[in-house]
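Now for our specimen.

. . .
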Amino acid sequence: MDRATLAAYDKEAAAFAQDWHDQPAPRDLQEIVGQFFIKGGATADIGCGSGREVVWLNANGFPAEGFDASEGLLAEARARYPALRFTRAELPDLSGIASGSFDNVLCETVIMHLVPTLIGPSVRRMFDIVKPGGIFYLSWRVTAGDDARDAHGRLYAAFDAALVRTELAAAELLLDTEVVSASSGKVVHRIVARQRG
């Protein structure tokens, strides 16, 4: 994770958490998960932030745990949802998570916060923790032109979707689309891939 981005999330975790929880529910994301994820399958939310999606996943038949690099956001998630499991793990390594551990892996608008050289290895590693036959959902906020930073100092890397597709060349792509997110109102690219097995 980009250090300035991580510092911003740690410093302002409570404000970010409140903002995310005040947003409209991400119905479009939930529909995609409902369509493609394996019901009842062990599910990981990589970059879970303050836990909003982990709660929804657990409530809708996808037993999930959350992973994030930000201790501040993890503290918010644990305070809000003490019954659920949230663990520190940072891309691209995801230390402590074994290959083929999860039936479903969700990574919602996280990889654009990585320096471009780490995006490929991060996608490869997340796909590695998907079981044979399992599903990987990946999205990122699209930045046109050059890398940018917002007022908080968060990095928004500009990169071509071909970089992600290359890392998923061995996968079966079930969805590959660019849309405006129903929750954030931002342009996002979404890919759903199945691990061949």
Notes: The CA atoms of residues 82 and 131 lie 27 Å apart. The chain has seven helices and nine strands. Residues 116-128 form the longest helix (13 residues). The helical segments are 3-11, 13-22, 27-36, 52-59, 71-80, 116-128, 161-167.
